[in-house]
Amino acid sequence: MVEKYIAVIGDMVDSRGVNRVSSHHALTDSLARVDAGSVQSLHPTVGDEIQGVFATIGDAFRAMHQCRIELMIRGADIRWGIGYGEIVTIDPKLDIQDGSGWWNAREALNQLVSVEEKAGWSNIRTYFYTEEKERSSFGQWILPLSHMIDVHMTRLNPSTSTTLRGVLRGDSNQQVARRLKISPAANSMRVNDNDLRPLAAAMKSLWELP
């Protein structure tokens, strides 16, 4: 029996309009800081894309959120296509895989690009697709919640993204302020003004999903 997994494809946003070398460095630096559990960690593939395989949707969201925050700190952004289904290894030596998990992740990414073009939807960064009934609940409430998180994150500048990372890690206010070379009061105000604590709580709720 072929096992089913969460397949993720990431695609850099507006990558054609930036320096490709600096964009690649931002991506590799960001991936090195992702510590979420995975079957196959997020890694570059072709062009501006990355991909990874996860046992749970929670692990996938944790990796996607961590990677996106690191990219935003570096002035870049990424969109995600998530698929659920079978993943088959065609050639272990060349790391060539196939299966419905990858087809669905690609379809999700294609649908996301189309949705982003609609008025009021340009700031979402995540989409999901599967034909498997056991994951049908995803589209009912998990995806809408992830879209609200997407939109909130998209509005953050690089410095505030660093503050969000600190909140998610449980760093003290003083630690984050020192890292950003600002006063603790300024960092605390940033947390409150941008509602970073409820944002972090929503993100972590997705990280716990099976």
From TrEMBL:
Matching Pfam families: SatD (PF16264)
Top-rank lineage group of the source organism: Bacteria
InterPro entries given in the database record: SatD
Protein name, per record: SatD family (SatD)
Species for this entry: Arcanobacterium haemolyticum (strain ATCC 9345 / DSM 20595 / CCM 5947 / CCUG 17215 / LMG 16163 / NBRC 15585 / NCTC 8452 / 11018)
